[in-house]
Specification:
The chain is of the alpha/beta class and 348 residues long. The chain has one domain: Rossmann fold (3-Layer(aba) Sandwich), CATH 3.40.50.12710. The structure holds S-adenosyl-L-homocysteine.
Length: 348
C-alpha cells in the first residue's frame, strides 16, 4: 500500500519518539483532504448533502426563517466550515434566495483539491484558512456538516500506573497505539480517576477552539449556527477514532493520509462552551427528527410529483437521511444563535 506519510511518521518517531494521537490525526487528515476529493460513490465516504438536495435545501430554509424573524438584517454573511464539494452551499443558498436571503459567501477550507471544486460552483465566494479572517461587520449564518469530526482529537488511556496520553509508536515497521510516559491524572475529571485499565478518554481541543470562536462572533455580530455531525449527547469512555476508506472501516494506523480519520463529536461540551460565551443554545436533536420537523417528507413528495421518474431515488435519499438505522439517530444537529436572535425551527 502506497502511504508516503507512513514513512515520514516512522522516521519522525525513530528520531524523536512517539507522537500524540492529535498530531497523528491532524497530519494524516491534512494530507488526506489536501490530495483528493474523498466524497461520493467513487470516493471513500458519502455525506448528507451528496445523498440528497433536500438536506441543503432544508438548511437554507432554516437559515432564511431565522433571518426573517431576526428582522431581515440587510447585510449578512453565509459562512460554511469544511464545505466539501460546495453542494450543501449550492442547495442552501438556492432555497434561501427564494425567501429574499442573499448573503455574501465565505468558506473556511484548507484542502486545495476541494477548494478547486468549490470554486466551480461558487465563483463569488471568499476563502479563509481559518475563522480569524472572517468579516466582523455583520451577522453570520454559520453551517458545518461533518466538519468537527475531522478535527484532531486527543486521547488519554488509563494504565496500571494511572492516566497517560495515548500516543503513536513504532513496532518493527508498523505504527501502533501506546501509552505515553507523561503522567496525565490531573487532566482527567474526578469521575474517571478510577476507570478500569485500558479505558480511553477523548477530548477535542480543536473543536472547542472552533466553538469558542464561533460563539464569540455570534455574541458580538449576531447570527446563528448549525453544527451537524455524528456524536454523542453525553460524553462516554472509549475510543471513537475510526478510519474509512472506500466506504469501509479500516485500521486507524495502517495507512495514514490515505483514509478519512474521524471521531465522534461531544455535543454537550460544545453547547457548554457556547453558553459560557452568552450564546443561545437552541438545542441538539437527532438529524431524523430535525429534518422531519422542517418538512422533509412533504418536500420529498413535492419533488417526486415534479420528477416522477426519480421517485425511488428521492424517497431512498429521504430514508437514508432520517431512518433510525441509517443517519437519522447517529447524526445530531446543534443550533446556536446570538443573544438577541430568535429560536430556530425544529429544536422544540
Ligand atoms: N461538509 C462537506 C464535507 C465534509 S468532509 C459535506 O458534508 O459533504 C470535511 C471537510 O472539512 C472537507 O471539506 C475538508 O477539506 C474540511 N476540513 C477538514 N479539516 C479542516 C481544517 N482543519 N480546516 C478547514 N477545513 C477542514
Amino acid at each position: 500500500m502506497n502511504a508516503p506519510l507512513l514513512e515520514t511518521f516512522a522516521r519522525l518517531i525513530t528520531n524523536t519518539g512517539p507522537i500524540s494521537i492529535a498530531h497523528y490525526m491532524a497530519e494524516s487528515n491534512a494530507h488526506y483532504y489536501n490530495s483528493r476529493d474523498p466524497l461520493g460513490v467513487a470516493g471513500d465516504f458519502i455525506t448528507a448533502p451528496e445523498i440528497s438536495q433536500m438536506f441543503g435545501e432544508l438548511i437554507g430554509l432554516w437559515l432564511a426563517d431565522i433571518w426573517i424573524r431576526a428582522g431581515r438584517p440587510a447585510q449578512v454573511h453565509y459562512v460554511e466550515l469544511g464545505p466539501g464539494r460546495g453542494t450543501l452551499a449550492r442547495d442552501a443558498l438556492g432555497a434561501a434566495k427564494r425567501y429574499g436571503l442573499v448573503p455574501t459567501v465565505h468558506f473556511v477550507e484548507t484542502s486545495t483539491a476541494l477548494k478547486a471544486l468549490q470554486l466551480e460552483l461558487h465563483p463569488q465566494a471568499r476563502w479563509h484558512a481559518d475563522l480569524s479572517t472572517l468579516p466582523n461587520d455583520a451577522p453570520v449564518l454559520i453551517v458545518a456538516n461533518e466538519f468537527l469530526d475531522a478535527l484532531p482529537i486527543r486521547q488519554m488511556v488509563r494504565t496500571q500506573e494511572g492516566w497517560r496520553e495515548r500516543m503513536v509508536g513504532l513496532d518493527q515497521n508498523r505504527l501502533i497505539p501506546i501509552a505515553g510516559s507523561q503522567l496525565m491524572d490531573n487532566a482527567v475529571p474526578q469521575a474517571h480517576c478510577d476507570a478500569p485499565e485500558g479505558a480511553i478518554l477523548e477530548t477535542s481541543p480543536a473543536s472547542a477552539a472552533i466553538l469558542y470562536e464561533v460563539s464569540g462572533r455570534l455574541a458580538a455580530q449576531g447570527g446563528a449556527a448549525l453544527f451537524i455531525d455524528y456524536g454523542y449527547g453525553e460524553p462516554s469512555l472509549g475510543s471513537s477514532l475510526q478510519a474509512v476508506r472506500d466506504h469501509t472501516k479500516v485500521d486507524v494506523f495502517a495507512a495514514p493520509g490515505e483514509a478519512d480519520l474521524t471521531a465522534h463529536v461531544d455535543f454537550s461540551v460544545l453547547a457548554a462552551i457556547a453558553q459560557s460565551r452568552n450564546v443561545r443554545w437552541l438545542g441538539t436533536v437527532e438529524q431524523g427528527l430535525w429534518l422531519r420537523a422542517l418538512g422533509i417528507e412533504a418536500r420529498a413528495d413535492a419533488l417526486a410529483a415534479f420528477a416522477p421518474a426519480h421517485t425511488a431515488e428521492i424517497y431512498a435519499g429521504r430514508d437514508r437521511l432520517i431512518d433510525q438505522q441509517q443517519m437519522g439517530t447517529l447524526f445530531k444537529v446543534m443550533g446556536l444563535a446570538g443573544p438577541s436572535w430568535p429560536d430556530g425551527a425544529g429544536f422544540s
